[in-house]
Structures are given as C-alpha cells and as structure tokens.
Amino acid sequence: MNTEKNLGNWIKELAGEYPLMIAGPCSAETEEQVLSTAKAMKDKRIQVYRAGVWKPRTRPGNFEGHGEKALPWLKKVKEETGMKIAIEIANAEHAALALNYDIDILWIGARTSVNPFAVQEIANAIQGTDKIILIKNPVNPDLGLWIGAVERFYKVGMKNIGVIHRGFSSFRPGNYRNDPQWPIALDFKTKYPHIPMIIDPSHICGRRDCIQDMAQKALDLKYDGFMIETHIHPDKAWSDAKQQITPLRLLEIIEDLNLRKQNFQDPQILNQIQFYRSRIDELDNELLELLAERMNLAKQIGELKKEKNVAVLQRKRWADIMLKAKQKGISLGLSEKFINRIFNSIHQESIENQEKIFKI
Ligand code: PEP
Ligand code: MN
User: Fold this and answer.
1) Which ligand is nearest to the CA of 240?
2) Looking at residue 204, what is its pLDDT?
3) 109 Cα: distance to centroid of ligand 1 (angstroms)
4) Is the Cβ–Cβ distance between 86 and 47 less than 8 Å?
5) pLDDT at residue 335, as a whole number
6) I need a labelling partner for 48 at 20 to 30 A (CA). Which of 181, 284, 292, 293 fits?
C-alpha cells in the first residue's frame, strides 16, 4: 500500500488547486434543511456535500437518521448544486443502498473502523466499484487498527482511498471533544504519504470556536483537506449542535485559510517552518501536561510521607532517578548538562510541593 502512488489521485481531480472541502450537516434532518444548507454553501471551494443518513449514536433514543428516505434529498443536492455527495456507511446494507443511489464518496465512521468484521463486510460490498472511500481514525488511539481498516479496502482492490483524522477518545478531560493525538496521524502520513489525509475539526473540537484554528493547523501540517459540519441553523441541529457552523461562517473560514496561504513569502520554507512549529507547540503542550501529572503524583507521595512521618528527601531514590534519566537521555542524544538542569529543576519543584504539604 505504501508504494501505491495512485491511491490519492482522486483528490486532485476533485479539488484541483484548492484543498478538498467536504462540508454539510452532521445529519440529514429534513429535505428542506438538506437543500437550504447545500444552496447556501454553493462555492467553487466546497467540492463535496456531506450528511449523515445513518447516525451512530452513543445511546439509543437520540435521532438515528432517516436512512434510505434521505438519499433522494442528497441526489437533489447533487443535481441542483453540482457538489459530489458523501455519506457514512456502517454495514453492507448501507453500502448497497449507497451504491443504488450512486453516492460518490463513502466514509467509514470512527465507531465502525474499530471493528474489522464490519470493515471487511463493507469492503466486500463495495469492491469492484470506483467509489472514493474515506476511513476515519478509530475512536481509540491505535494506529495499527486504522492502517488495518485502510488495508482491507486496498486489498479488495479499491483504488480511490483517503483517511480522515477526527481525533481519539481520551480518559483525560481536555480541551477537545476528541484528542487530536497528532503523532498518530503524522505517523500515518509518514508511512503512507500517497494516501490523502483530511482533518475533521468539528469532531476534534466539539465546539465552534476552535474550528478555524484546528483547520489552519492541519493546513500547516500539509493535510489535503477538511470535513467540516455545516448546518443552516446550527443551534437547532438534531445532532452535534454545538460544533456545527453556518454556511456563511464556513465561507469566512475558507477565505481566511486561503488568505494566509497567499501571504507566505517563500511558501516552501515557511510551510516547512510552520510544520515544525506546530509540532513543537504540540510537544510543549504534552510536556506541560506530563509535568503536571508528575507533580500530582509527587504530591500524593507527599501526603503519604506526611501520614507515615517519612522524610521528604529520599537521597537513594533521587540518585536512581537521575542515573536512569542520564542513561536514557544520553542514548537519545541529549547532553548530560541538559538532563542535570531539567531533572534538578523537576526535583526541586517536587520537594517544594511536598514541603508545602508537610506545612499544612
Ligand atoms: C460524523 O461525521 O457525523 C460522525 C458520526 O463522525 P465520527 O465517526 O467521527 O464520530
Ligand atoms: Mn457529527
């Protein structure tokens, strides 16, 4: 799969000089909502209209999609606006219906790409067609599972393949609905540079106000396009209301992304610098989160030491930590001086935190 250079040709054919933009509502709710959203989005920089026809809901009882009833509405969108149509399919029956209604792009949702049986069933159902298949990352942060899902489509002979980065479930409460975990997506990109990767800022952010920044970041990281949930009346949406934006806002975001691109003086070098800076920002964030987590553990140890009346400073333990850190750090190419400085500073902070606990 990594030597197959043609897997991503579809994206240039579809998007030309622009990044690919797939936009549309989370769910197809009514014919009126589907068509009015589509008409308000008509713009040459939006090539594909998305809508969920079958909705995978975490709990039963929420709106689960109209199913086949909504497919003629999407056909109308195609006829009236010229946009291609994308829907999510989650089993062989959905696949057959999507083929019947000549849907152009099929995507595999994050709750389906975790399941090799479902993925294989869908791959078998669409093999032999020239449909574009986009595979969202699985909900859990498992690169192998994501690659495996893509391979199942490649192995049945699908020729037009792409992936969607929509973030991962995380037990740590964070800023995002789904943690982007950039290293996993970037690993995928490095392994399979010919498979287009698009970002789904809506499901990563889970709220409107971070969509623009997330889209810009992906552009800086050389993603090939976007999937952004867009609804004519976002606040009234039957699913994912908080993260959907109006068609007008979508056009503003596109305008802004394009403008920034044109401002580059030497696009190649600036792009490269941006790429590294974005990664550094991410890593800095992770460093801070890890440091905070480490300090919290040290505080818990502090509580125990206080309870059992044990001295804060344990020289032997500290000497062991330092030794291990130096060995590991040096093997990774870091200087001994640097490791000394960092670890002494971390140690100092831990001790100060524990001493504060003793004083309480
Ligand atoms: C969606 O795109 O509406 C959707 C359900 O996404 P995900 O599979 O990423 O949760
Ligand atoms: Mn959604």
Assistant:
1) 2
2) 98
3) 5
4) no
5) 94
6) 181
* Residue type, position 340, single letter: N
CB 180 within 8 A of CB 204: yes
Which of these, 113, 205, 180, lies nearest to 150 by C-alpha position?
A: 113
Closest CA relative to residue 135, chosen from 172, 168, 166? 166
For residues 207 and 222, give the distance between their C-alpha atoms in angstroms, rounded to a whole number.
Answer: 23
Q: Establish how many alpha carbons lie within 13 A of residue 142's alpha carbon, considering only the half-sphere containing its beta carbon.
A: 15
Q: Which residue is closest in CA terms to ligand 1's atom 2?
A: 26
**Sequence-separated contacts (24+) of 216-220 with Cβ below 8 Å:** 216/256, 216/257, 216/260, 217/278, 218/165, 219/19, 219/257, 219/260, 219/261, 220/271, 220/274, 220/275, 220/277, 220/278
- Ligand 1 close to Cβ of residue 165 (< 6 A): no
pTM: 0.76
Which ligand 1 atom lies nearest to the CA of residue 239?
A: 3
In which residue are the tokens 């195609």 written? 78
Single-letter residue type at 56: P
Find out whether 222 and 196 touch, Cβ atoms under 8 Å.
no
Residue nearest to atom 4 of ligand 1 (CA): 109
Atom of ligand 1 nearest to the CA of 166: 9
Please give the distance, rounded to the nearest whole angstrom, from the Cα atom of residue 200 to the centre of ligand 1: 9
Q: Which amino acid is at 6?
A: N
pLDDT at 268: 66
Which portions of the chain are predicted below pLDDT 70? 259-268, 270
DSSP secondary structure letter of residue 19: P
Element (H, E) at 301: helix 267-308
Tokens representing 250? 């979508």
Contact (CB, 8 A) for 231 and 47? no
Most ligand 1 atoms within 8 A of CB, residue of 50, 53, 200, 239 to mutate: 200
pLDDT of residue 259: 54
What pLDDT score was predicted for residue 312? 77
Could you write out the three-class secondary structure of 75-100? Answer: HHHHHHHCCEEEEECCCHHHHHHHHH
Determine the Cα–Cα distance for residues 36 and 56; give it in Å rounded to an integer: 24
